[in-house]
Amino acid sequence: MDRLNLPMTTTPVTLLDEHFIHADSVRCPMSVHIEIRVSGRVDVGQLRTAVRTAAALHPIARARLDPAPRGSKTLNWEILPELQFDPLTVITAEDSGELQRAREQLASVSVPLDTAPPFRLYLVHYAGGDYLILNVNHAAADGLGSLRLMYSILRAYIGAADHRGDIDPLLVRDIPATLQLDGSGQRRKRLTNLVRETSQFASKLTSIAPEGDAAKAGYGLFYLHLDPGEVSQLNAKRHVPGSVNDLLVAAMHMSLANWNSNRGGEPGNHRIMIPVNLRPKAWWHEVFCNYSSSFHINSSPDQRESPESLMTGIVRQTSVAKEKGFAASFLEPLALGAKLPLWMKNVLIPALDTTPLINAVLSNVGNLKERFSLGDAGEVIEFWFSPPMFLSDGLAMGASGYQGGFHLCFRHLHSLMSAD
Predict the structure, then answer these.
(1) What number of other Cβ atoms are within 10 A of residue 399's Cβ?
(2) Residue 76 CB: number of other CB atoms within 10 A?
(3) What is the pLDDT of residue 15?
(4) What is the spatial distance between Cα 118 and Cα 104, in angstroms, rounded to a whole number?
(5) Whole-number Å distance between alpha carbons of 21 and 13
(6) Which of 146, 174, 172, 167 is nearest to 54 (CA)?
(7) What count of other Cβ atoms lies within 10 Å of the Cβ of residue 6?
(8) 363/387 Cα distance (integer angstroms)
């Protein structure tokens, strides 16, 4: 590919980057899935140029892993002045089946990190409007970071300005330094918070009843759109004052319980992991990187006996998660593990991710207020997202609000659930 005329440099991987590097696997790729649909047809050449322009703005979008010397404890990103690999694949789907296969095929790819860029892109020509599907290796960026990359591609496609302000996208990747988390007093508080959260739900979780093809690898995707009229009926304060996100979490807990009950399972405890954006408010949606911690929200059969008790329990837990420094407490185990040699982390982290600590992941990127048009390719009429998942869960839901509606995308292992 043509050179971007940018300098080559290196930058250390962060604690979060490193965890996702070791957690990635062919069976359960740590991938972020962003998907849009336009009303018309996308120009291939124009799109390829837009991808290069977007990569020029975001250094990690043109990075590869620098091979580590034997016995090393650290890894580095090597940021290149050019993309070594054309990430765009163009497909023509004749029907919905071919479209779905393309979606699931890309979402199930573990994007290699030994060449730049750490993402792949499908352009699917389809009757009634093209699809643009992005797969980002989670080691490079989280959901909001991947969304920022998609924004850059869309803006570059129509030649619109795309500024990141005065932010140095490499310097701010150091989360402890940026958030000033290195004080010993704060460290003790974060460790106390971590122990409190992980110990309050120590009893064994009830696994999701499998009803899929155990021999089939990869992910399935299910799409659910709520129009503005349906969204207006989602009253998060009907039972207990809460947020729309609290309502989504409650619905997911009830759905897991109902799924198991309908398959003869015993009532049990469920736990859902919620990503928490650690970016400062000043650049809440900026920087292609990993800047999210996580929080676990639990429910017991007693709590799920009524909507009021369930929402009460969830709102109480999410209020704790909003306490200053609480979400950052989940970085502490990563900081301790950073002292281990790479070969040991490559053994321990995948083993931990197979431990049944959660049932599902739920991530809400919020209301996407910017309305996109791709010129001759037409308006962006759909905006989908699904977060990464770990081997131990096998189910994830991504939510995004766009043009007054809600786009809910469910990602599942084929071995957990069938298409039906």
Answers:
(1) 23
(2) 16
(3) 82
(4) 18
(5) 10
(6) 146
(7) 14
(8) 6
Specify the DSSP element, H or E, that contains 320: helix 307-321
Residue 388, CA distances (Å) to 83, 110, 394, 418 in order: 24, 11, 10, 19
C-alpha distances in Å from residue 275, one per residue of 70, 142, 144, 245, 360: 33, 9, 10, 12, 11
- Give the sheet arrangement for strand 76-79, strand by strand: 9-12, 76-79, 63-66
How many residues are present in the chain? 420
Higher model confidence: residue 237 or residue 90?
Answer: 90
Which residues are CB-neighbours of 293 under 8 A, at least 6 positions away? 275, 276, 278, 327, 328, 329, 330, 331
Give the whole-angstrom CA distance, residue 371 versus residue 369: 6
pLDDT of 1 higher than 50: no
Residue 313 has pLDDT above 70, yes or no: yes
Q: Which two tokens stand for residue 409?
A: 């995308």
- Do residues 61 and 118 lie in contact, with contact meaning Cβ atoms separated by under 8 Å? yes
Spatial separation of the C-alpha atoms in residues 259 and 368, rounded to whole Å:
31
Residue whose entry in the numeric block shows the structure tokens 């321990």: 348
Structure tokens at 314: 């969830």
Instruction: Compute the distance between CA of residue 97 and CA of residue 102 in angstroms, rounded to an integer.
Output: 9
What whole-number distance in Å separates Cα of residue 270 and Cα of residue 256?
8
CB 158 within 8 A of CB 375: yes
Q: Distance between CA 127 and CA 57 in Å, rounded? A: 32
C-alpha 374/C-alpha 376 separation (Å) is 6
The token pair at 266 is 């015993």
